[in-house]
Amino acid sequence: MRVGGPMGHYHSYSSTRSLVAGAKKIWAESDQWMVLGSGSNLVVSEAGFDGHVLHINTRGVTVKKATGQKVQIHAEAGEDWDGFVSHTLGQGVRGLETLSGIPGTVGASVIQNVGAYGAEVADTLVSIDYLDCPSGTRRNIPAEELELGHRTSALKTGALHGVVLGVTFSLEPAEDGLSIPILYDQLADGLGVSVGDRAPLGVTRSSVLALRASKGMLLDDNDPDSVSSGSFFMNPVVSERISMALPSEAPRWFVGDTQPDTVIPLGSPQPEAPALAEPGMVKLSAAWLIEYAGISKGFSLPGSKAAVSGKHSLAITNRGGASASEVAELARYIVTTVGNKTGIFLVPEPTLVGLKL
Questions:
Q1: 303 vs 74, 208, 299, CA distance in Å?
Q2: Catalytic residue among 94, 151, 205, 212
Q3: Is 229 a catalytic residue?
Q4: How far does the chain reach from its first CA to its final CA, in angstroms?
Q5: Which of 150, 169, 45 minimizes the C-alpha distance to 107?
Q6: Looking at 174-216, which runs of residues are DSSP E strands?
Q7: 268: DSSP letter
Q8: Distance between CA 301 and CA 249 in Å, rounded?
Q9: What is the pLDDT of residue 268?
Q10: b/e per residue, 141-157, with b = 16+ CB within 10 A?
Q11: Which has the closest alpha carbon to 72: 24, 6, 126, 120?
């Protein structure tokens, strides 16, 4: 976002051994600390952070295990995410190709459970190498214990407090050179395939990168729309009843299990009424809600240098010289305006430091 104030104490770690030793030392002296990956999903106030910042610059990718139809690949937390995705494709394995171009580090990808174009980290994650705070205990935590959900995890909610040291994924050999099934309409259209079909790995990655660039979601010095933290708000998940209060053209995706239809042959006795199922949950498009509330692409508050992206209404951008306060002011305006229009209050996706909406 190119905003924010100073750090109190900066520490850079290029090896896992030095990271473990440094974190233990800092935790013994202070409870004011935070972990920094690439900063791509971070918005910091002008006051900055008057504590210890642990910058994770560890590197290394290794094949841990190849069993049957799966290959386990481990990456240190500081590896660049898109570089890691490209590396896996170069190794001839599939599973991460639709997550190409997402900025950030491998360690951070788990915290956010990053996802795009029908896939997310949870689909292929095996486990994380983790350093617990304040005990300093190092352990391996399997994916099923991380409470992975839509752009969240036990690491993000604070149920787990510590540092991700490395991440292991289970990927599939792509002997046919094809991707995982394409599940996202827009990507399928760009590839010229039907939803559910596969496409060549390299072509899939190129198409994803082109789509992200068209939305200002790839950093480009010549594109002011790319100076952002990506999607600023999460797509809300609401009850089916709430979703039906919106206009029929509002995009909706059912999430979770749904009650199957039951066929009763003519003349059969009437069965007992089934127990009432849990209310259905529906994911909505935050971008659609923002525009429905009257906030168009490129919108900015009078005199502010923060603006909604001209390419994607879900991104807040720094048009040059914006302050963190201006970013937060625009975000608050969007939350309030959408809430007043729909009764649905959007939740920010980036990590906010010293800022409240």
A1: 48, 35, 12
A2: 151
A3: no
A4: 17
A5: 169
A6: none
A7: P
A8: 28
A9: 63
A10: bebeebebeebbbbbbe
A11: 126
Q: Residue 150: what pLDDT?
A: 85
Is 326 tagged catalytic?
no
pLDDT at 67: 75
The string of pLDDT tens digits covering residues 31-87 is: 999 999 999 999 999 999 999 999 999 999 999 878 778 999 999 999 999 999 999
Structure token digits, residue 226 = 């790319």
Mean pLDDT, residues 114-129: 96
Q: Which domains does the chain have, with CATH numbers?
A: 7-56 (no CATH), 61-214 (3.30.465.10), 221-258+278-357 (3.90.78.10)
Written as six digits, the tokens of 217 are 């979601």
Q: Are residues 20 and 61 in contact, defined by beta-carbon separation less than 8 angstroms?
A: no
Instruction: Kindly tell me the burial class for residue 268, based on how many C-beta atoms sit within 10 Å of its own C-beta (0-12, 13-18, 19 or more).
Output: exposed
* CB distance 225 to 310 below 8 Å: yes
349 is catalytic: yes
Catalytic residue among 97, 120, 326, 349: 349
E-only strand ranges, the chain: 7-13, 33-36, 42-44, 49-56, 61-67, 70-76, 93-94, 115-116, 119-120, 125-132, 138-142, 162-173, 228-231, 237-239, 252-255, 281-284, 306-308, 315-318, 351-353
Active-site residue (options: 229, 231, 243, 313): 231
Q: What integer pLDDT is reported at residue 321 of this predicted model?
A: 96
Tokens matching residue 295: 């906030």
Q: 351 - beta bridge partners?
A: 42
The per-residue pLDDT for 276 is 41
Helix (H, G, I), strand (E, B) or coil at 257: coil
> Computed from CA positions of residues 121, 122, 126, 131, in that sequence, does the dihedral angle turn out positive or negative?
positive
